[in-house]
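Ligand: pyridoxal-5'-phosphate. Inputs:
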Amino acid sequence: MNNHVTVLEIDGNALEHNLHYFKNKLHQKTKILAVVKAFGYGSDAAKVASFLKDKVDYFAVAYAHEGTALRKAKIATPILVLHPQIQNFNQIVRDQLEPSIYNLKTLTEFLAYAEEQELLSYPIHLKFNTGLNRLGLSKADIPLIMNAIDGSEHVKIKSILSHLAASEDANERVFTLKQLHNFKEIIKEVYEYLDYTPIAHTLNTSGVINYPEAQFDMVRIGIGLYGFGNDKKETSQLKNSHILRSIISQTHSVKKGETVGYNRAFIANVDATIATIPIGHADGLSRKLGNGNGSVTIHNQRAPIIGNVCMDMMMVDITNINCKEGDNVFIFKTQEDILNISSVSETISYEVLTLISQRIKRMLIY
Ligand SMILES: *Cc1c(COP(=O)(O)O)cnc(C)c1O
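Predicted complex:
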């Protein structure tokens, strides 16, 4: 049992609010896939999925073992594995996970495996590269792909998908429209080989925001579910789902001229009071937040992080805050807090969330 005092609260009401926000942007029949890879964007995939399982059509994870963890948590919803490996096929089939087939090698190997195991209509997904050049089959290989699959009773193509490279970037609109055009051509060509119609999907969160006309049959919402759109206006419509809180372990009064922490990086230029908080860079908080660049919130007041962030703790200046040992501290509570941290850490919200270490306790609240 993790009884750490530093806790990441996952706000179920926020997840639900965000899901509705995106649902309202979509046609009624468009399916929703909730992306819960990387521990539900640094939260807890099993808790998020248990909370959302009756509200979405699909879940996606990056790797097979992330899907296994969801099955262990009794999630029965279909689970798409975005980045399966040949070494994982046994696990994938054992746990009824659905592989996104992204290259010819994986396709050939999966078809052989399905035949050997005498699988019947095992659900697979065909992922095409339309310009991201990361994972995906080529349009030029469609005849080869479809002839390989043709007539196989062992697999069934549940969906055709692709992924946009710059859906959040208005300056890349021409490129994105080209990707969407490529995707449409691919779907059309694949459908001609089949007597059934797999669903199609390509939009991520910012895709839904910027290209709702390309929602096809399903959309894949990740970061939006957790509270972030691709600009201030969208983000303000969403609710933050990740709340990171801790407590004050100890306070110290330091005299003018005394120093705090490693390398004596903080030097008090007046008498000061400082507090030590049990969270550090090993928990995913960048050392860039030290030396006054970042802050925490105590009794609704900002306490700057002083000196160097240590591995397991950090010190903050509470000289002007009326607080004591044991009091609550918010590392972040709002989207603005998270965006401040990501800007000081020179990264994006995705990374701030997914870096929250596994030793921090997770709690779903709603
Ligand atoms: C991570 C991921 C998503 C979700 O993207 P967001 O920007 O977080 O909504 C969708 N599709 C694929 C293929 C992904 O890898």
